[in-house]
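Q: I'm writing up a methods section and want to include an example of the input and output format. Could you take the sequence below and give the corresponding predicted structure tokens, formatted cleanly so I can copy it straight into the document?
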Amino acid sequence: MNDANVKAKENTVKSCWSCKGPVAVAALFCPTCEAVQAPAPVNHFERLGIDVTYDVNTGAIDRLYFDLQRQLHPDRFATKAPKEKALSQQQATALNDAYEVLKDPLKRADYLVHLLGIDVLPEGCNLVKDQAILIEAMEMREKLMMVDSMKAITEIQRETKAEIDDVLCALSLAFAGDDIRGACQLTTRLKYLDKMMGEVRQSRARLLA
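A: Here is the clean output for your methods example:
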């Protein structure tokens, strides 16, 4: 076996903490002794066993997540040693984090931009340089502050939802075309629109009070 193959194997296989047998790095349990393993240093997509893509199947994510969580249910570890209980809790926490990010379109976009473009975009997506995005956000907020009827609020909510849907479609195309900078810009705009939608809901609640 050459050095490259040895290195590749080392990156995918580790020793079980319990029986010292070989176990895949991302595996939940050892195939030999069935002891739960520590969470692997892998990305959220790998943790759930899906391809790295923005266009995830949310239904499949639900099924994978709940199946894995069933395997890590505390009742299954009630009679286990303290170390196994602790590792199962760590695995459950890591799975929760992955699920929370990948299930949400905005969090998924932000995570994927950083995952794929970390060397290209060291500043991330929080540094807003596009004046059009800033102006749009200011105009939308000013418009919202002036509304005084439920009809007007509903119209703003409809317009914002349509804008969000357009951005989500554009994000899908940007990621599919490996346009990380474009995806970063769209993600920043989506953050503003998501915040705007939250303010719309607050305004609606205020008018109903």
